[in-house]
Structures are given as structure tokens and as C-alpha cells.
Amino acid sequence: MASSTQTYDFTYDHTLILSGLIVAEEIEISGRARFAFTPGRPATGPSYSSGGEPAEDPEIEIDEIELAGHPASEPNGKLVYATLAPSDPLYSKIEAWLLDKKFADLCEAVTDPREDYADYFNDMRRDDALLAAK
Fold first, then answer.
1. The pLDDT value given to residue 119
2. Is the pTM above the cut of 0.70?
């Protein structure tokens, strides 16, 4: 399946720790993530020519995370973004948070009217949980 590049604006709550001491709790970090989205597809039933195909989950791969600068410090009060290096520990924290806690929101950010990927993903998770409970 073809993937598309999308952008998602976020606000991440972060606790700042320096030398083992909590300096500030719940700092709001604003930014945007660019990600590649590959849509999933529902399972197909058996037919005359095929035994059916299993469902495929939508996939998201974070390509870039940018953090927003403070608009008061920028010329013309315009928000400026700086790219966060993938080697930065904050990058991996934000990436994990986006993929774990914001996956459905990332799917909803995709501008593709063919299918509501977030609903599909949530329904699939619910079905898997119900099957596992039996």
C-alpha cells in the first residue's frame, strides 16, 4: 500500500530533571511531527479465487519532530520550529508517546476521506480484547 506524509501538531507534557532533581513538572512542549502513514485494510472473506486475506493494521513511522520556539522571542511574533535530533533523548520520549498514546489521533489527522482509520483501529483493538477474554 502507498504511504503518505502527514503533519500532526501536538503539545507534550514533560518533567524537566537535571542532575537527578526535578526542576519543573509538566512543562508544555509544543511541536509538530511529520510522519509516513500507510493505511491498513480490513480482512477479506474467502471467495472463489482466494481463501481470503488477513486484515492489515495502519502503520505510522515518525520521520521528523520539530519543537516550536516562543513567539515573543521571534521576529514578527511568528512561531519558528527547530528540528529535534533523533539522537536526543527527548525525541525518543516524544516518538514513543505519539505512537503509544496518540496513535488514534495521528490516524485521524490523515486527510483521506475513504476510511476512518482511527475508528477501524479502535474497533479492531476492541475485537481482539473480546476474543482474548473468551
1. 63
2. no
CA-based torsion, 114, 117, 121, 127: positive or negative: negative
Whether pLDDT at 12 is above 50: yes
Distances (CA, A) of 132 to 11, 66, 98, 104: 34, 39, 26, 21
User: What b/e sequence results for 6-34 when a residue is b if at least 16 CB atoms lie within 10 Å of its CB, and e otherwise?
Assistant: bebebebeeeeeeeeeeeeeeeebebebe
Q: Which three cell numbers stand for residue 99?
A: 505512537
User: Residue 36: which of 98, 94, 82 has the closest Cα?
Assistant: 98
**Confidence category of residue 77, pLDDT binned at 50, 70, 90:** low
Strands of the sheet containing 21-38, edge to edge, are 4-18, 21-38, 59-68, 81-83
